[in-house]
Amino acid sequence: MAASGAKNGRSASVRLVRSRESERVPETGAVASMQQAEVTISRDLLTELWRPEYLERLARAYWAWVSRVTFSLIRVVYAPDSRSVVLLSRRIPLLRFGLPEYDTGSDHGRITWPIRRGVLVARAGRDQGFLRISVDRREPGVEDAASETVLVRVEVRNFYPLLRGSGRFARFGTWLYGQTQLRIHVLVCNGFLRSLAALDLPPSRVGSLLGEIVEPGGAEAAQRFEAEGQGR
Question: Are the CB atoms for 19 and 36 separated by under 8 Å?
Answer without folding.
Answer: yes
